[in-house]
UniProtKB/TrEMBL annotation:
It holds the Pfam family AhpC-TSA. The lineage of its organism: Bacteria, Bacillati, Bacillota, Bacilli, Bacillales. Residues 4-165 form the Thioredoxin domain. Keywords: Antioxidant, Disulfide bond, Oxidoreductase, Peroxidase, Redox-active center. This is Redoxin domain-containing protein. Belongs to the peroxiredoxin family. AhpC/Prx1 subfamily. Transmembrane segments: none annotated. InterPro entries: AhpC/TSA, Peroxiredoxin, Peroxiredoxin_AhpC-typ, Thioredoxin-like_sf, Thioredoxin_domain. PROSITE patterns: THIOREDOXIN_2 (PS51352).
Length: 180
């Protein structure tokens, strides 16, 4: 039986990543918490696929809005940092990513994907999982769905803003509206 994650401490992580300047480095939940920031951690199945670049670039194109909300965005797949870099170095017109404003992390041993409950073990890839973690490390939101469907950046931003109100947000709540 699956175990509840929302409302508990998020599984800690440290992963190798390709950073926005295209250098190799590490990303960790501890470092983001130390900066007193929110974390938007999203998993995707594989580099050089068709749906993935649409959402990865959409998140990058809207990164300034996440930054304005004191949130760090990290994309994760089970591919290597070298494959990530090759994909970033491929132009968007060629199904590549081009410039990204946030890191792509490599979960090559599949441990983080497994801890977050998104690993398809028989394929060695992750489902499309999205997790929002508050600055104290508490997992506040998760969604996991089929790999054929890309995420909605507007909805991710809306949920992040709703969580940051600290209030009760009714159905269809939008930033600027009253909470309950």
């Amino acid at each position: 039986m699956a175990e509840r994650m929302v409302g508990k401490q998020a599984p800690d992580f440290t992963m190798e990543a390709v950073l926005p300047d295209k250098s190799f480095g590490k990303v960790s939940l501890e470092d983001i918490k130390a900066q007193d920031k929110w974390t938007v951690l999203f998993f995707y199945p594989m580099d050089f696929t068709f749906v993935c670049p649409t959402e990865i670039t959409a998140m990058s194109d809207r990164y300034d809005e996440f930054e304005d909300l004191d949130a760090e965005v990290i994309g994760v797949s089970t591919d290597t940092i070298h494959t990530h870099l090759a994909w970033i170095n491929t132009d968007r017109t060629q199904n590549g990513l081009g410039e990204l404003k946030y890191p792509l992390a490599a979960d090559t041993n599949h441990q983080i994907s497994k801890e977050y409950g998104v690993l398809i073990e028989e394929e060695g890839i992750a489902l499309r999982g999205l997790f929002i973690i508050n600055p104290e490390g508490e997992l506040k939101y998760q969604t996991v769905f089929d790999n054929n469907i890309g995420r909605d950046v507007d909805e991710t931003l809306r949920v992040l803003q709703a969580l940051q109100t600290g209030g009760l947000c009714p159905a269809n709540w939008r930033p600027g509206q009253a909470t309950l």
